[in-house]
Design goal:
single chain; mainly beta; 0% helix
Length: 116
């Protein structure tokens, strides 16, 4: 069955870094655009970053541009989110999302907490 499993979340200090991974299975990963979204406590879901199926193009929300980097390894069916210069406002549950021709899948999320 389809699975998206996020990992790499945890506690980081302001200015620190974390690298999230999302391992996919059960579908043709290389055909799907992938993205990351997050939900902070008491707030709605916020799109963070996206990457084309072949990795040829990437997109970022203004709130993370210049600090986060999305990448993917189609041989490993995995998408990554490198998060640098973390801020307390980056605290949220981070979800990965796969989309292809109107079909979408979501992972269960991984918690990221940025605090001193």
């Amino acid at each position: 069955q389809v699975q998206l499993v996020e990992s790499g979340g945890g506690l980081a200090q302001p200015g620190g870094s974390l690298r999230l991974s999302c391992a996919a299975s059960g579908f043709t990963f290389s055909s799907y655009a992938m993205s990351w979204a997050r939900q902070a406590p008491g707030k709605g879901l916020e799109w963070v970053s996206g990457i084309y199926s072949d990795g040829s193009d990437t997109y970022y929300a203004d709130s993370v541009k210049g600090r986060f980097t999305i990448s993917r390894d189609n041989a490993k069916n995995t998408v990554y989110l490198q998060m640098d210069s973390l801020k307390p406002e980056d605290t949220a549950v981070y979800y990965c999302n796969a989309v292809y021709k109107g079909i979408g899948y979501w992972g269960q999320g991984t918690q990221v907490t940025v605090s001193s």
